[in-house]
Amino acid sequence: MTSTNQTLNPAGGVPASPAGLRPAGRTSNRAAETRRKWYEIIGLTTPAIVVYVMFVLVPMGFAFYYSLFRWRGVGPPTEYIGFDNYVMAFQDPIFLDALRNNAIIVFGSLAIQGPIALGVALLLNRNFRGRTVFRLLAFVPYVLAEVTVGIMWKLILTDGGTFDALLRSIGLGGLVQPWLADLDLVIWTLLFVLTWKYVGFAIILLLAGLSNVPQELNEAAAIDGASWWQIQRHVTLPLLGPTIRIWMFLSMIGSLQVFDVIWVTSVPAVRSLGASATMATYMVDNGFFARLWGYGNAVAVILFAISFVAALLFQRFLLRRDIEGAITRRANRP
Amino acid sequence: MTANTVLSPSAKRRPVSWGNPLTYALALAVAAVSITPVVYVIIGGFRTTPQIVANPAGLPDPWVVDNYVRVLTQSDFWRQAFNSAVVSLGTTLGVVALGVCAAFVLARYTFRGREVLYTFFTLGLLFPAGAAILPLYLMLRDLNLINSYYAVILPQVAFSLPLTIVILRPFLSAIPRELEDAAAIDGTGRLGFLWRIMLPLSRPALVTVGILAFVTSWNAFLLPLLVLGDASLHTLPLGVQNFSSQYTSDTAGILAFTSLAMLPALLFFTFAEKQIVGGLQGAVKG
What we know:
heterodimer, A: mainly alpha, 2 domains, 73% helix, flat, disordered N terminus, disordered C terminus, B: mainly alpha, MetI-like fold, 14 helices, globular, transmembrane (chain A), transport (chain A), ABC_transporter_permease (chain A)
């Protein structure tokens, strides 16, 4: 027994009994044992619980409280105005633009990144020389800081910048657009930048999921004469279901609160007109920079409520589909 | 061709082969899309601003290292890199220490309310850090923590905890019960078991959550933007953003600064990529 312990614990040497712990005191004193167990449970979890409650849960509670006031952030809030801030937000066309932009980003990200990531993950899951290098290169955009990505694309897409010059040099000068200044176009440009940045995250998750698919299933299908495509479609893809759903969930939550890339890439003037605003940039612009703290906190609560409802609906909807899918798929199988 | 494609998924146990040309063509296309803009930024740093203005899509002619030298010697680059390192390391240590303790309890103790506690933590996955940023700022201000490293570290630890616990718990649960019994017979309590056996055995999972926390923290922008008003505490993302809006006409300088700022994360990830994908496998099992 001792030898097992030692081999597993190269650093520790002979495992000495820590002070105060009786060796194998199972029968001696049940109550003391239970009490010590609870001390350990409380001692080990308290730091995490305190930090988590204090910096994640408490702020959201305060956000709701502050949102009921007209408040410039100085002294305690006194001017109670009920839900006026919420009404104001939904009457502001800029905020409605921000909502629309968030919707574009949520659905655009799912619709564009999903298929691309699936294709690339299946490709990079094949066995070929140099695969590791290609995987690393595909992850590069995801690893870069949002700020870096934003500045990079801003310089590339700026009027008369690199991208325009490239288009002109290959004779497509007619396609040149004010990519980041055109009020109708800018959100789609930003969607492109976001896709470029975050598709790597989907690829990482899908590759991790793919490596969980047992090789034996693929081999069995191959012996039965299934082609590579048929194997992917009928064996791999169904098994990737849970991974795809986790990615969709995280992508959706991320898209709803997207801030950094939008903030850095888009011009403030364009953002203030709503063309490139999202709920998060709108919240920071109004709450932090314009010092409308009550109003900003109301937007925060709206942002949170939308994310929360979306998350609950997502789980409910997809959980149900999961169960149905599992049953019907099996029944339909020959 | 067909035989090759049929067999390739099952080729794991055979020596690595050269794939077919189509595979390479597609992989190269993917790589090109990913890194062309990055390469452009790095190479652009070797040009001068007049060169860039004259021909935005050209190559350096001649190559100049001046921009890089300027950033590395004159700007606040090093102090910002130091601040980023302090904040990221602090966050990583905090997340791993708190996360492993909580996950250990959730994985190895049976007690009333355990699943409730776990759900309570996973609830945090639904709380977008972005939504809480304004009240968080107000709270940190009231606690007099604004303009300190803690103002970034503590919230980052808190918001990374849910994911950390979700990744660590199944890993810690999977370690065989017999080891715990053996340790108990040898007179090691549960805490000794955690310290002497669990931690060494779960190093891969710890590294995964550590890397995720580190990279997230290293790249963080919104929280530092709000709580680090003092320029001497600025982290690299803030520095890059400030540099680019302060010296808008110095395109070459911006490109050089941006390149240098993204290098650490790139290098770090290159070394740790296997760990991340490996560590996520347990988490995405579903």
